[in-house]
TrEMBL record:
Molecular function GO labels: histone deacetylase activity
Annotated organism of origin: Nonomuraea phyllanthi
Name this protein carries in UniProt: Acetoin utilization protein AcuC
Pfam families in alphabetical order: Hist_deacetyl
Domain Histone deacetylase: 22-313
Keyword Aminoacyl-tRNA synthetase included in the entry's annotation: no
Organismal lineage: Bacteria, Bacillati, Actinomycetota, Actinomycetes, Streptosporangiales
SUPFAM superfamilies reported in the protein's UniProt record: Arginase/deacetylase
Length: 387
């Protein structure tokens, strides 16, 4: 399906490291790139480097005073609680500015790649730090690289950008950056804010002219319910909005094994979502697709396989889910982490779902979540909220 795809990568991207014991361990992206390399996925894409985001680029989303505060923490390693650095979620560390700016620069490079036509699709698996706000770090995120990519695209003249966030946590920082901007449609599918950080992302948060869309799913939702919700909300809105470019965030912490959340997706359900977004990029955005990683805290069994599937999907050469993981990668996992690696690229699930067009059940909590979103935003887009 793809004419070309580019992976933005620099080995220094793993320097975004909050220290031992922190859930956002950079080994997850290290293992992802190693798996993609051993499976031959990287042979099907162009791998390109990146430069750190400049202060002027960071200022497209972040207050200059905040950037200066991050730099001071970066030089000293001392906390600045006013900037949100020095908390349990966002520990202060020397080099935090440089590490964060490089991740931001990688997502800017991905956006530039697609906007200028150097490749049809581009991905930064180290990115997706969607909780960072304009003047504070939040939720493991210092600079909001997806928001920066979108802001840069707007500065280049993009008139309509769609952002779809499938992380288990609400994409609150990106929503906040563009909440009153009808040029940007933000869609977030996440666990209900009643049971999970950051406590936002209710269906009633609709932004300017319905530009913010939130699907808040109940804890325990698995593949069938999640995919039913995705297909009931995302395709109709993207078709109506007709973006010039699609930006997506692929946190894989919706997986049943993730230790920080309560959804129950399988790797196969997540892979189905990647394929659906690929199709929608071509159908609604002329094939222009910028993707990032995101959350994901099962570092060995989930993140590397999920994002290797994502890279392969962008490349237009999906990995056979039944394929074995390469022996060399398994050895690397054991040496690097001491953990037992997965043997195949699948969880063995079918990831089937029933489409809501066949009718909805008002007694079903997933269908109630779907209809709450459709009723809140579909009329604002001229769409009928009823199936």
């Amino acid at each position: 399906m793809s004419r070309s795809a580019r992976v933005i990568w620099d080995d220094e991207l793993i320097s975004y490291d909050f220290g031992p014991g922190h859930p956002l361990a950079p080994v997850r992206v290290e293992l992802t790139m190693a798996l993609a390399r051993e499976l031959g996925v990287l042979d099907k894409v162009e791998v390109a480097g990146c430069a750190p985001a400049t202060d002027a680029e960071l200022a497209m989303v972040h207050d200059p005073g905040y950037v200066e505060a991050v730099k001071r923490v970066s030089a000293s390693g001392r906390p600045d609680l006013g900037a949100g650095l020095g908390t349990v979620d966002n520990p202060a560390f020397k080099g935090v500015h440089e590490a964060s700016a490089l991740i931001a620069g990688a997502s800017l490079a991905a956006a530039r790649t697609v906007w200028e036509g150097a490749a049809e699709h581009a991905v930064n698996v180290a990115g997706g730090l969607h909780h960072a706000m304009s003047a504070t770090a939040s939720g493991f995120c210092v600079y909001n690289d997806p928001a920066l990519a979108i802001a840069w695209l707007l500065e280049q003249g993009a008139g309509r950008i769609a952002y779809v966030d499938v992380d288990v946590h609400h994409g609150d920082g990106v929503q906040a950056a563009f909440y009153d901007d009808p040029r940007v449609l933000t869609i977030s599918l996440h666990e209900s804010p009643r049971t999970l950080f950051p406590g936002t992302g209710f269906p009633q948060e609709t932004g300017a002219e319905g530009s913010a869309v939130n699907v808040a799913l109940p804890a325990g939702c698995g593949d069938a319910g999640w995919l039913r919700a995705f297909h009931a909300v995302v395709p109709p809105l993207l078709r109506e909005f007709a973006p010039e470019i699609l930006v997506t965030q692929h946190g894989c912490d919706s997986h049943a094994l993730d230790p920080l959340a309560n959804l129950m997706l399988s790797l196969d359900g997540q892979r189905s979502a990647y394929a659906a977004l690929h199709r929608l990029a071509h159908e609604t955005a002329g094939g222009r697709w910028v993707a990032t990683g995101g959350g994901g805290y099962e570092l060995v069994r989930v993140v590397p396989r999920a994002w290797t599937h994502l890279i392969a999907e962008l490349a237009g050469h999906p990995v056979d889910p039944g394929a074995p993981t390469p022996p060399e990668w398994r050895r690397f996992v054991r040496e690097r982490t001491g953990e037992t690696p997965p043997l195949t690229m699948t969880d063995g699930r079918d990831a089937e779902f029933s489409d809501i067009s066949g009718g909805y059940d008002p007694a079903d909590p997933i269908d109630r979540a779907i209809m709450a979103t459709r009723q809140a935003v579909f009329p604002l887009h001229g769409l009928d909220p009823m199936p």
